[in-house]
Automatic annotation (TrEMBL):
Cofactors (names): Mn(2+)
Keywords: Hydrolase, Manganese, Metal-binding
Record GO terms (molecular function): metal ion binding; N-acetyldiaminopimelate deacetylase activity
SUPFAM superfamilies: Bacterial exopeptidase dimerisation domain, Zn-dependent exopeptidases
Gene3D superfamilies: 3.30.70.360, Zn peptidases (3.40.630.10)
A GO BP annotation: diaminopimelate biosynthetic process
InterPro entries (alphabetical): Amidohydrolase, Bact_exopeptidase_dim_dom, Peptidase_M20
Organism phylogeny: Bacteria, Pseudomonadati, Pseudomonadota, Betaproteobacteria, Burkholderiales
PANTHER family recorded: METALLOPEPTIDASE, PUTATIVE (AFU_ORTHOLOGUE AFUA_6G09600)-RELATED (PTHR11014:SF63), PEPTIDASE M20 FAMILY MEMBER (PTHR11014)
Protein name: Amidohydrolase
Species of provenance: Pandoraea captiosa
UniProt KW Disulfide bond keyword: no
Coiled coil ranges: none
């Protein structure tokens, strides 16, 4: 067998071994203690300068190549990011030899694969050292909560480890295996949550005129909120407003005093995000005032939109073309309404976020993210590693 094929096989086996080990021991947000220990140990074994406990369980590992003066600044510094957390979902994978050994938890979003790809890039670059500058491998906690990136930044990530640009990927069921897809601008949505508290006046179910019925008011609010997207948002833009919980303190024969409505909104741009909040507040306050009820409206930003920078997206597309071939690259993929904590990094540093196809059609990799049967497709591990390594070579040329 040719030497390069033998090396490729060893490389794929190493990455798959790491991935399966992570898969067996899933840990959820900010509890990635043994996961981050494993990541740090592998990075140290590759000779990198590893820093632990950044934003909780976060890790930064530096690989410097270049400049005779030893400063290692070379052509700058690039961040390559992976996420480490699993989900509180009970895995349903009969016969999966490396299934989760932690009841009620699993890597159902493929972050086990993301870690292995980024570790693979570190291994490739630590061996080849064919660039000039600094690569910082960033392993963040708590992506699913949308809290980990902020925690690392609040802990001084960008001051202690400055970077000129940052790159990340997410595996994507529904995209053919190994296809790399991205776009300039919004690729993943912002997520905001809201809580509407309506206080009326409870009364006997048979004597409604004695009270103020918050349930009828709440029902009007749920329907009226659907006019925000259809009547207030520019039809050329997109947004989602979903009420997901409706809670009352009523009983069968008593009209309640309190109603709480909770829900979730998605959008791609800060101005649409602001518009949703403003219009929703006006509708809730207006309808409650009309009926003489008291209203509190709470709106919280959970995830920033993931907005790709044009120049970095062009560089990512070129790197993808080198490693995957032109036919396997999509430079203008449709954005996805789900949210991603990577968006926070892109508010501070230029960069790009891309999807890497996990499988489509009847392929096992097509099972959706966050499904109990989902699994990361091991076949794309070496490709992901080579993609990141190519980005580093192109960003920090010798
Ligand atoms: Zn997820
Ligand atoms: Zn994810």
């Amino acid at each position: 067998m040719r030497q390069d094929i033998v090396q490729d096989t060893y490389f794929a086996k190493a990455l798959t071994g790491w991935r399966h080990a992570f898969h067996r021991q899933p840990e959820t947000g900010f509890e990635e203690v043994s996961t981050s220990h494993t990541v740090a140990t592998i990075l140290e074994s590759l000779g990198l300068d590893v820093h632990r406990h950044i934003g909780g369980t976060g890790i930064v590992a530096n690989l410097r190549v270049g400049n005779a003066d030893g400063s290692g600044s070379g052509n700058g510094a690039i961040g390559i990011r992976a996420d480490m957390d699993a989900l509180s979902i009970a895995e349903h994978a009969p016969g999966r030899s490396y299934a989760s050994q932690v009841p009620g938890k699993m890597h159902a979003c493929g972050h086990d694969g993301h870690m292995s790809m980024v570790l693979g890039a570190a291994k490739l670059l630590a061996e080849s050292r064919d660039f000039n500058g600094t690569v910082r491998f960033i392993f963040q906690p708590a992506e699913e909560h949308g809290r980990g990136a902020k925690a690392m930044i609040a802990d001084g990530l960008l001051e202690r480890f400055p970077i000129d640009a940052i790159y990340g990927v997410h595996n994507m069921p529904g995209i053919p295996t190994g296809r790399i897809a991205t776009r300039t601008g919004g690729i993943m949505a912002s997520e905001d949550n809201f809580v509407i508290r309506i206080r009326g006046r409870g009364t006997h179910a048979a004597r409604p005129h004695m009270g103020v019925d918050p349930l009828v008011i709440g029902a009007q609010i749920v329907v009226a909120l659907q006019t925000v997207v259809s009547r207030s948002v520019d039809p050329g833009e997109s947004a989602v407003v979903s009420c997901t919980e409706f809670i009352t303190d009523g009983i069968r024969n008593a009209i309640p005093t309190n109603v709480v409505i909770k829900g979730d909104t998605r959008s791609y741009t800060p101005h649409v995000q602001q518009l949703l909040e403003t219009r929703m507040r006006e509708i809730c306050m207006g309808i409650c005032a009309m009926h003489g009820a008291h209203c509190e409206f709470e709106y919280t930003h959970e995830f920033a939109p993931t907005m790709n920078w044009a120049e970095n997206t062009a560089l990512a597309v070129r790197a993808a073309t080198v490693v995957a071939g032109e036919a396997m690259v999509d430079a203008d993929v449709a954005p996805v309404m789900a949210s991603e904590d990577f968006g926070v990094f892109l508010q501070h540093v230029p960069g790009n976020f891309a999807f890497i196809g996990n499988g489509s059609g009847d392929e096992p990799g097509a099972i959706p993210l966050h499904n109990a049967c989902y699994d990361f497709n091991d076949a794309i591990l070496p490709l992901g590693a080579r993609y990141f390594a190519q980005i580093v070579r192109d960003s920090l040329p010798r």
